[in-house]
Amino acid sequence: MDFxxxxxxxxxxxxxxSLGLPPLVGYLLAGFALHFLGVQPSAGLDTLAxxxxxxxxxxxxxxxxxxxxxxxxxxxxxxxxxxxxxxxxVGFLLTLxxxxxxxxxxxxxxxxxxxxxxxxxxxxxxxxxxxxxxxxMRTRHGRLAIGVLVMQDIVAVLFxxxxxxxxxxVWAIALLALPLLRPMLNRLLDAAGHGELLPLTGFFLALGxxxxxxxxxxxxxxxxxxxxxxxxxxxxAAELSKALLGFKDLFLIGFFLSIGFTALPTLGMVGIALxxxxxxxxxxxxxxxxxxxxxxxxxxxxxxxxxxxNYSEFGLIVADLAVDLDWLSxxxxxxxxxxxxxxxxxxxxxxxxxxxxxxxxxxxxxxxxRRERLPxxxxxxxxxxxxxxxxxxxxxxxxxxxxxxxxxxxVWGMDADSSRIHRLQGEGLAAFVGDGEDADLWExxxxxxxxxxxxxxxxxxxSRHVTNxxxxxxxxxxxxxxxxxxDERQLLIDAGIDKVFNFYxxxxxxxxxxxxxxxxxxPEAAGQ
Length: 528
Known about the structure:
Blueprint (H helix, E strand, L loop, with lengths): L1 H17 L4 H14 L7 H20 L2 H5 L1 H27 L10 H11 L4 H10 L6 H25 L17 H10 L5 H19 L4 H11 L6 H24 L6 H11 L2 H14 L4 H11 L5 H11 L6 H21 L2 H7 L1 H4 L21 E4 L3 H14 L3 E5 L2 H9 L4 E3 L5 H6 L7 E4 L4 H13 L5 E6 L2 H9 L4 E4 H16 L4 H4 L2
Parallel strand pairs: 1-2, 1-4, 2-3, 4-5, 5-6
Helix pairs in contact: 1-2, 2-12, 3-10, 3-11, 3-12, 5-6, 5-8, 5-14, 6-16, 7-8, 8-15, 10-11, 10-12, 13-17, 14-15, 16-17
């Protein structure tokens, strides 16, 4: 039976991907299809789902800075959206109850408030998956969306404490001393090395954080997040996150499948779920308006709000609690599961086209920007740049340093990760914060002196998108990019990139040339 689950999930995921949609949409559909066919999930499915969420929160913590949570735009948009949303949603639900719509007849003011509160949250699983797939976790809008999600998780923990009446143990106060363990945890991570012990260490710390918080009566998921945050400054945090990536993605398939096994829906339930999904534009507008009011750029507000405009799996937890307390009928669990599923699909479809939608509607979306911007939203102009390296990861950084030795200050680096750029600027290097897919950025930059742009980006889709932006900005210089596989190389050339380097081939060639130099031979002489 476990093979059948994997088989259907694979077929649905592959089919959906071939249509240009994120595979998670296929996993959601696979769960409902399996349930409709009468397949019973194994007991291990929920365990895999829980493990996937725990690892996901742990890896979020690895990339999260405490300062991001304290920014006014994060907590103001979180609390503001919840407040305004609850007012709007309660009014909508009570209106449906007053006309006697099926499943709404017994909805009271308290029940409507509970449902509105549950719908006010955004899905951590869906948003993180989309941001990771698009390589935007460390961008300005990505960090903003993650900050809002973490703030929502904190609100959720407080709600569950008051709703269930389960007060944390007095020993929970001792959790405040966890930052003192950071040096020991960093040494533990360094001792794990780079092999199979590294991901095992990640599992140990993620599950250890979960169990520790659960032991003192606090939501375990928060413990996994905190455990990751304690390691976020470690030099191996990025390596650990990559080591856990495959495990996390595989286990999260169990989460998406499990939603479909909640219960079999009726046509009436599907209709109500679709109706509730139609409220998502209101949620988007609330986030978008609040973020603009916080003096963010229109593009940042657009991308953040678009990612956050969905319903959360937390709604299922609230609905389950309400059913246990006889506040809601059991059918609402199915309605909530369908609504969450539909919202995932809507977000996946729209966010896949988020950048092109912004480019086509830029005039309207920037009309409501505030004149005064937050410091992080002010675009920088590199001075006297002849070569620009986009993407300052390991490959980009290696290229930058090599070029910098030859050309000095004529070489500039650009990356969407502000913390990385600030570190490089601290070393005295010419670098600035910028998102390559930002149409506003390339229109703002004076590229007249730039002769060459190197795209050292994580995916070929990123490189293709940046190439399209540069074409629109009438860039006249040369473009170079890296590819990890031969089939990707041709796709980048077709996109208009002048020179594409195969990552593995070029690394081997460079290794050979440097080795020959050690014994006093030049590469051309060795070939004669």
